[in-house]
Every structure is written in C-alpha cells, then in structure tokens.
Amino acid sequence: MNTDIDQAAQATPVTASDASPSPIAELKPKMELHGKVTRIELYGAFIDLGVGQDGLLHISQLSTDHVNNVNDKLKVGEEITVWVRSVDAEQGRIDLTMIQPPGLTWDELKVGQELTGVVVRIEKFGVFVDVGAERPGMVHVSELTSGYVGSPAEVVKMGEELHVKIIKVSSKKKQLDLSVKALETRIETPKDEDLTDIPTAMELALRSAMRGTEMEGQLAAADKAKPRKQDKRQDKEKQRKAQTDIALRTLQNRPK
Questions:
Q1: Domains in the chain, please, with CATH?
Q2: Could you read off the pLDDT of 35-59 as tens digits, one per residue?
Q3: Mapping DSSP to helix (H, G, I), strand (E, B) and coil, where does residue 29 land?
Q4: Which is nearest to 82 in space by CA: 50, 133, 47?
Q5: H/E element, 221
Q6: Which stretch of DSSP H or E encloses residue 82?
Q7: CB 175 within 8 A of CB 136
Q8: How much helix, strand and coil, in percent to the nearest 5, is found in the chain?
Q9: How is 218-253 classified by DSSP, letter by letter?
Q10: pTM of the predicted model, to two decimals?
C-alpha cells in the first residue's frame, strides 16, 4: 500500500503554488548581478546568473562605446558583472547590461520632485548638477536665487552640493531643468494656532463700526466746545440791555 501511495505522489505534477518561488521572480530592474558567459552569438552573449535561466546581454549593452564584435569584449567562461534592464518572469526572459544604470531613470523623474546633487559644470548661462540621472540637470542662472546673479560662479562652486527642484523633464530630448529658487519661494501653510489670531469678517465690521461711533462722539464733543455765533450775539445783546438799564436808573435817580 505504501508503494502505491509513493507511486501516486510521484505521478502527481507539482503546480506553481506548491513549488517554491522562482528566483527569476525576485529580479528587479537596475539590480546588480554576477554571472558567467555561457554562449556568444553575433547579437550578444548569454549569461548564467544562477537563477535557472540565462540572461541575454545584447551587443549594444556591452559598452557605451560602439562594439563591432562580441568576442572583442567577452570570452566563454568569463565571469562578469551585469545589471538587470528588464525581466519577464512568465516568458523566462532576462535582459542584461554591462553599462551601469543611472540611479534615476527618465520614467522616475517628475516635475516638482526635490533632489540633492553635486555641481559638475559651471557655464555663464547656468550650472549643471549631477542628481543621479542619466545626464546632469541644468539650473539656469535665473533659477539659482531670487536675487540678481551676474555670474553663476558668484553663487555656486564646483563640487558643491545643491538641493534642487525639477521644473521640467523631457525624456525625448534627454533634458532636465532644475531650480534652486523654486525652493526659496515655497509658501508655508499657517499653523492652526496662528489662524486664531486672524479676525473674521464680522469682527472687522464690528471694529469698523466702533471706530465710527468713537469718531462721531469726538466730533460731537468738539462741536460743543466751539462757541456758536448765535450764543455770541445773545451775549452782546444782554450786555447792551444791562448797560441801558443802568443808564435809565441813573437818570431817574438824579435830583431835579
């Protein structure tokens, strides 16, 4: 009985869910690997990576310089260092390169992204900053600072580390425009406790009305303090009448 069970178990195929994960599924683009050249063709070489499937190293990926013959660069059995360009685990295809990939690909660069890089070149019109992309990005002289800059050399130095912001990306033209000024002009959001000090529209209207009332009171007090012309005329008439009364009484009391 045990023999029958063992034979049945051997006849049952192992599904993908029962098997352990294939190492090829763990490979990611830009991953560094070490392998051995197993076969050379006109179009490239096949590399044993120890993952159960050889990777293809195309002739165009042997060097940044033009290569006419794969044999000029590689030999069968040679151990080399490669990087993963792309992986198709379902088809069992691994695309390799001997050209070290940049830290950031064009697909990973986005407008508004903030990066830190090193100044690698200074020109009259701006500076070039290596941020780990395929090519250095350019910071135009007008984007170095919010103030006037006569020459980029007045603001930055070769080898200086700069914190920059991406303002334009062109994967077709392989151009990356950066800015330092964009980081200086960032608007900070006010904190909740700061908002309590900001008067509302109703409070502003009330304050305005109160100021108006105070002004009216001040004007009224000033008016009261001013002598009016009518009061002056009445005072003069009273004085003349008093003088006339005195004169009449004096004439009546004179002896005849």
A1: 21-97 (2.40.50.140), 106-184 (2.40.50.140)
A2: 999 999 999 999 999 998 999 999 9
A3: coil
A4: 47
A5: helix 201-225
A6: strand 79-88
A7: no
A8: 35, 25, 40
A9: HHHHHHHHSPPHHHHHHHHHHHHHHHHHHHHHHHHT
A10: 0.51
